[in-house]
Amino acid sequence: MTNLTHSVRICISKGISFDAPSMLTVRVGKGPKPKEFIVHESFLTSHSEFFRRAMNGKWAETESRIVKLPKDNPRTFAVYLNFIYTGRLTTMRKTQEELSAVDCDTFIRHIESEYQEIFELYVLAEKLQDVSAKDAALTAAIDVTQMESSDGKWRIPSFDTCNNVYEGTPEGSPARRLITDMCSGLPMAGIVLYIRAKSVHKDFVNDLTTALDKTRPVKRGHGGNVAVRNGVKAYLEEA
């Protein structure tokens, strides 16, 4: 008997329903006219613990079939929906080939914008308790780090993106670790400028210090003591 390990057939009970009762309305954003998304309940609840709990019990959302996300960005939620439906993140506006042809300032704007969308998705997925979306966001972020501008350099997320991640994630978050690891690879002059240019989250500074200790460990004994290695004469005006 033939073993169909990759059969295209599934049980009828597992098929997607397109009846109205199977759909949810998700209202995203502030103001008198938030953006409304009509989504299959099964897609949301199979990915997100937040939606699973909202639709399982005696909550108002269970009866109204309307879930409100007034503090979130409709664009970010659209990226999230694209992911749960297709497994892809709609964050890339230009290919590596196209970006290689633009000047450095244009490259930086595009890359920082994509980093922002990717990490905003991560913060949303943290709220919605969707591990697969968080992992997809971090995978995408690492992809972006491999894109180089015309001068052969890669870029890191902006200060605002860094702060948004720290405001929207708990201590020890993988997204926090990724950002600090990105920054720890910069030249020291770049790291100092990064910290001094704008006000950054205090936890970021602490995490970056830890990351730097790992990537640039001080040697044991006098090997790490620059002053001793240079010798006292290096500091005397009258040698």
From TrEMBL:
Gene3D superfamilies linked to this entry: Potassium Channel Kv1.1, Chain A
InterPro entries on file: BTB/POZ_dom, SKP1/BTB/POZ_sf
Ranges where the BTB domain occurs: 22-93
Domain of life: Eukaryota
Pfam families cross-referenced by the UniProt entry: BTB
Protein name per UniProt: BTB domain-containing protein
Lineage: Eukaryota, Fungi, Dikarya, Ascomycota, Pezizomycotina
